[in-house]
Amino acid sequence: MSVTPADVTYDTRRILCAVDHSEPSLRAVKLALDLAGKCGAQLTLLNVVRLPIATQQEIADYLQNEHIHDMPAVVVREAAENDLRLLRDRVAMHSGVAVSCEVRAGVEATEIVASARDHAIDLIVVGHRSHRRIAGTLLGSVARNVIELAPCPVLVVR
C-alpha cells in the first residue's frame, strides 16, 4: 500500500520560524508564511541574539560617543526587536496571517527549542547555510541541533 501526501494529515496551528536575517532564513520566513496561510496557523518569528559582554570596551565607547546610556545588552536586544518588527510588518502586510515576534538571548538552537516548548509549537522552520564539511563538523549546525532537540517536526530551508 502506498501513502500519498493527501493521506497524511498533521494539525499545524502554531509555526515558529527562526530568523537571523540571512538569505536562507528569509527564504524560511517566506515558506513559513505560505504554510501558515494554507494551514490557518499563527506564525511566530524568532530571533536569537548573543548579548555582548558589558566589558567590551569598543561597544561601550561607541555607545558613549553616541550619547546612548543604556547597557550594550539592552541596545542589542532593542535593535533585534526593531529589525524583527520591521520584517513582520513587511511580510504580514498582505498575507492575512497572524504574525508575532520574539527575541531571545542565548545559544541559537537551545533558544529555538525552548521557544517551541514554551509556545506549544507544531512546526519549526529554519534556514540552513551551507558550510564546508570541516567547518560544519567543527562548528555544528543550528539546524542540525534544532532537529535533534525539537519537540516537533522541523522544516529546514536551504
Give a description of the structure:
The protein is an alpha/beta fold and 158 residues long. It has one domain (11-157): Rossmann fold (3-Layer(aba) Sandwich), CATH 3.40.50. 46% of the residues lie in helices and 18% in strands. α4 (108-118) runs parallel beside α6. The longest helix has 21 residues, at 72-92. The radius of gyration is 18 Å and the shape is globular. The model is unreliable at 134-139 (pLDDT under 50).
Overall average pLDDT: 84
Looking at CATH, the homologous superfamily is HUPs
Largest sheet: 5 strands, parallel
The number of domains is: 1
CATH architecture: 3-Layer(aba) Sandwich
Low-confidence regions: 134-139
Structural class: alpha/beta
Order of helices and strands: EHEHHEHEHHE
Helices, by number, come to: 6
Write down the Rg. 18 Å
User: At the first level of CATH, what is the class?
Assistant: Alpha Beta
Total beta-strand segments: 5
The N- to C-terminal Cα distance equals 32 Å
Q: Give me the CATH fold name.
A: Rossmann fold
What portion of residues belong to β-strands? 15-25%
Question: In percent, how helical is the residue content?
Answer: 40-55%
Strand order of the largest sheet: 3-2-1-4-5
Instruction: Using the alpha-carbon principal axes, give the shape.
Output: globular
